[in-house]
């Protein structure tokens, strides 16, 4: 007779224990995800590896390298004012805000001149490596290239006209 009352009691206890166990597992998963937040690779050192002095034997390339290195150094150091001052139109600086994302680090490795369109306009390809802790990005370490378009301003100085 007591069995009739004990069976429902044990069933209810089993259900409650199962629910509590599921709840603990859900909490464990969310804690693990927050603890497992992606971190920037401590071995990755942001840098500009392009050296202006490597182009001292070619006046044109040397001038172009100076402008390029100034812009790249500004990105590495997070100096938005310095970056904007090296643009042909400093008001365009907000277009490149993504280059200053603190969750992405760059190492600029090399550049090559692609094409002189005129004596005052040139396209360059800059090779870079990167490191990020943005969770939606598939690869934490990546590499790529960006095309920089440099143009001489009214004073005859090379400035960054566009980055693609």
Please state the overall shape, judged from the principal axes of the Cα atoms. globular
Q: Which structural class do you get from the secondary structure elements? A: alpha+beta
Report the helical percentage.
Answer: 25-40%
Characterize the main sheet.
5 strands, mixed
CATH top level assignment of the largest domain: Alpha Beta
Q: Using the coordinates shown, work out and report the CATH topology of the largest domain.
A: Nuclear Transport Factor 2, Chain: A
User: Can you tell me the residue ranges where pLDDT is under 50 for at least 5 consecutive residues?
Assistant: 1-17, 19-35
Instruction: Compute the number of structural domains.
Output: 2
* Estimated radius of gyration: 28 Å
Please, how many helices? Answer: 3
The mean pLDDT is 82
Strand proportion: 25-35%
Brief overview:
It contains 3 helices and 5 strands, in the order αβααββββ.
Written overview of the protein:
The protein is α+β, with helices and mostly antiparallel strands and 164 residues long. The chain has two domains: 1-36; 47-163, Nuclear Transport Factor 2, Chain: A, CATH 3.10.450. Helices cover 36% and strands 29% of the residues. It has three helices and five strands, in the order H-E-H-H-E-E-E-E. It has helices at 2-35, 59-77, 80-85; strands spanning 47-48, 104-118, 121-132, 141-152, 158-163. Strands 1-2-3-4-5 form a five-stranded mixed sheet, with helices on one face. Strand 4 and strand 5 (158-163) form a beta hairpin. It is globular, with a radius of gyration of 28 Å. The termini are far apart.
